[in-house]
Design goal:
The complex is a heterodimer of chains A (427) and B (327). Chain A has 427 residues and is of the alpha/beta class. Chain A is built from 15 helices and 16 strands. Chain A has a seven-stranded mixed sheet, with helices on both faces. Chain A has a three-stranded parallel sheet with strand order 5-6-7, sandwiched between helices. Chain A is globular. The longest helix of chain B has 34 residues, at 2-35. The N and C termini of chain B lie far apart (58 Å). At the A-B interface, helix 2, strand 9, helix 8 and helix 9 of A face helix 1, helix 3, helix 5, helix 10 and helix 12 of B. Chain A: Belongs to the leucine-binding protein family.
């Protein structure tokens, strides 16, 4: 009996673990808890792109991609547990969709030699590949987002923001505080007045913050929120009749779940994005054929095409392209994490390649290097149409202000290198 | 002068926010009064009630994901919508059924146990209900609209503008919440003080065994109290869900009720209201006056500091019963 039990347990464990020859890309997702509604959509997009490659192309370079999912509940401790549980299964790359988990994983991946890919989140200065050898955050980071938002406002105001008031409503956490230094620098450069309005997590109650905004009468509000903070803020903005077209969220404040609960009053709200929106892309025909029609889409495919689904899918596109590049460089299909890092460092995703994938103009062009792990930082704006219940792209991809950002990246990464005893690489 | 007017606006909004906190705290008080148990699951009850309300209103098929996964079907909705009033009534019935099941499956087996055992049981219940809500209705954020108005009150803005030269912001939803909370408290106080069942409820709270010995049905009282707490949770869920959508972070509103309970006392219905008002006004004024000097975002922690200050002088809370145990 005992032998049978051990044999059964072993069989169960082996069935649950990925085959060692496959490419393993763990999905550290969160489908439960306060941020589950956001995490679920992103995880579905991430899973579906790899499922599509497996079903349609037989994987990447002939290797099936395994995407074992581990629930973090957006909790840093659980995220670390997921990493520890999966790192010895042949895992190549992690994308935990949490700045808190990312901060904890950065020193670990350097020791374990795993790639950490954090598109649009995590530690901004990880863009500096000389210091952060194993971390990549292309196509854009938090500071890029802040700068692109200001560039958009400059365009809206004939290139002059002097005398304007801009309020930053932010999640009072490491994530939310990220853009402050950038915006302070940009305020100095362009002469606008910046006010900082922190919101404690989870952010359901924001009356004080929006009373302050109502009194201060800023011309524009920029928001760095996540989860319920977004819906509560957009609702409060509508309550005080703040003009929605002057309210811009970072990409993590720009999904359908952020605006739908507010109804028609959310009409006109804007948000940054570094990926396309909607389903007007050829790839969705393949997703329908290979996943939806065959019941193989993640969670039944109910989130296909949403903003966060698209972003999760885009993360999978970048990872799969890096895997392809790594296979090409190494001359083998079953690559190691070190080879994947090399693939990331020489990754180029051109507009032509995006069109081949079935996602024309879906993201900015990406060109990475040993030094630049963050790409160009380009982002664009989308605007919510409450009647049609859809996001519309309203600007082209715009480059951030590197004059302000580059010294900040250099300074922050140098400080990290010093405190961690890292000697920057020669690139 | 401007600062004084702004402070008055903050004060009024603090009062309104306090009522929203008190709505959550009321559920805790009811169950504590009847069973001496701190119900950890009260926040999740509000979430579960709101999820059920939206699900019924939108004609959503409960357990649709599970059914589809097992049977390979693609059902999502019954194809009808239910009017708000009827949906609220049906949800209240679901909460009564839930109270019955909680008594039958959890509480009945714990009669005479230490309060800490019952408290632990409510922790388990909270996790179970959160998972059940997820499986039944899905994890998506849902819009809750039962017809309550929301947004700035134009008349108050106009009147205050004429008086002070500055139009006050008062959310119409908060005005409704205040009126509903006042009705709810009046009904609960009357029930607890003047009805046979209300007195029986208080007897059970004092001593389970003694109440049983005089013929009070513990099962009935517990089902009744959990049903009322479930209804109060539904009201709180409607108010908070209307503000920011029905989503799983709704269960975290319980965190806002804790300082209210510490301040108002765990056994007093008026205490929950007064505690809520003090916490609401206190945290808003502190954020307005001191917040800008220390970086803001003070409300979460200041509510607890305020409650702790009161605890130093009145450990039983403002309206709580002073319990003296002789050894």
């Amino acid at each position: 009996m005992r032998t049978k039990l051990i044999a059964l347990t072993a069989a169960g464990l082996m069935a649950g673990a990925p085959a060692m020859a496959d490419l393993v890309v763990p999905n550290l997702s969160y489908r439960t808890g306060a941020y589950g509604a956001n995490g679920t959509q992103y995880a579905d997009g991430f899973n579906d792109y790899f499922a599509l490659l497996n079903e349609r192309d037989g994987g990447i370079g002939g290797e099936i991609v395994q995407v074992p999912e581990c629930e973090t509940a957006y909790n840093t401790e659980k995220g670390i547990e997921c990493y520890e549980e999966t790192k010895d299964t042949g895992a190549l790359v992690y994308n935990p969709l949490s700045t808190g988990i990312t901060y904890q994983l950065i020193p670990k991946v350097s020791v374990d030699k795993k790639v950490l890919y954090t598109p649009g989140y995590g530690r901004t200065s990880a863009k500096n590949g000389k210091v952060f050898e194993w971390v990549f955050n292309a196509p854009a980071n938090y500071w890029d987002g802040a700068s692109v938002a200001i560039k958009y406002l400059l365009d809206e105001n004939g290139g002059d923001l002097s005398g304007k008031k801009i309020a930053l409503v932010f999640h009072n956490s490491a994530y939310g505080k990220e853009p402050i230094r950038t915006l302070q620098g940009l305020a100095e450069k362009h002469g606008f007045e910046l006010s900082e309005v922190p919101v404690d997590a989870p952010g359901q109650e924001q009356k004080s913050q929006w009373l302050q905004i109502r009194r201060d009468k800023p011309d524009y509000v920029i928001m760095y929120g996540w989860g319920v903070m977004n819906q509560a803020a957009i609702q409060e903005a509508a309550n005080i009749r703040f003009p929605m077209e002057n309210f811009i969220g970072i990409w993590w404040s720009g999904s359908e779940v952020d605006v739908l609960p507010v109804g028609d009053k959310a009409n006109g709200y804007k948000a940054l994005t570094f990926n396309g929106v909607g389903m007007d892309y050829p790839i969705y025909e393949d997703i329908k054929t290979y996943l939806l029609d065959t019941d193989k889409a993640s969670q039944g495919g109910e989130h296909v095409g949403s903003a966060l689904y698209s972003r999760g899918m885009y993360a999978a596109v970048v990872i799969s392209e890096a895997i392809r590049k790594a296979q090409e460089l190494a001359g083998v299909s079953d690559i190691s994490p070190e080879q994947l890092r090399d693939g990331f460092e020489q990754l180029e995703i051109t507009p032509e390649r995006l069109t081949e994938i079935g996602l024309p103009d879906f993201g900015p062009e990406i060109r990475m290097s040993c030094e630049n792990h963050g790409g160009s930082g380009m982002a664009r704006l989308q605007q919510w149409d409450a009647a049609a219940k859809q996001w519309n792209l309203i600007s082209e991809f715009t480059e951030p202000d590197q004059e302000i950002l580059a010294p900040l990246i250099e300074e922050d990464s140098a400080a990290y290198a010093k405190e961690s005893g890292i000697t920057p690489r020669d690139c | 002068m401007d600062q004084l007017i702004y402070a008055a606006e903050v004060f009024l909004n603090g009062l309104m926010t306090g009522v929203m906190y008190a709505l959550v705290a009321l559920g805790f008080v009811l169950i504590f009064k009847a069973s001496g148990v701190f119900n950890y699951a009260q926040g999740v009850l509000a979430l579960f009630a709101a999820l059920t309300l939206v699900g019924i209103q939108q004609g959503q098929v409960p357990f649709a994901h599970l059914i589809n996964a097992v049977l390979g079907t693609h059902i999502e909705s019954f194809g009808w919508t239910v009017p708000a009033f009827l949906a609220v009534l049906l949800t209240a019935l679901v909460m009564i059924l839930l109270a019955f099941l909680i008594e039958k499956l959890v509480l009945q087996h714990l009669v005479g146990q230490e309060p800490i055992i019952l408290f632990m049981a409510t922790i388990g219940l909270a996790y179970f209900l959160e998972g059940l809500g997820d499986v039944m209705w899905g994890a998506d954020i849902k819009r809750l609209d039962v017809g309550l108005p929301q947004g700035i009150s134009d008349s108050i803005e106009t009147v205050t503008d004429q008086w002070f030269g500055y139009g006050f912001f008062i959310d119409r939803l908060d005005i409704w919440a205040t009126a509903i909370a006042a009705l709810l408290v009046a009904a609960l106080v009357a029930f607890s003080q003047f009805t046979k069942q209300g007195r029986a409820m208080r007897a059970v709270a004092d001593d389970h065994q003694a109440a049983l010995s005089v013929g009070i049905s513990l099962r009935f009282i517990w089902v009744m109290v959990w049903s009322i707490a479930g209804f109060v949770a539904l009201v709180a869920g409607i108010m908070w869900g209307t503000k920011s959508g029905v989503q799983f972070s709704l269960s975290l509103i319980a965190l806002k009720a804790l300082p209210v309970l510490m301040l108002g006392g765990f056994t007093s219905i008026p205490g929950a209201i007064v505690g809520g008002l003090i916490i609401g006004v206190g945290e808003k004024l502190f954020e307005f006056l001191i917040g800008p000097m220390i970086g803001g975002a003070t409300e979460n922690w200041f509510a607890y500091v305020l409650a702790l200050i009161f605890l130093v002088f009145r450990p039983q809370g403002l309206f709580g019963e002073r319990i003296i145990e002789r050894v």
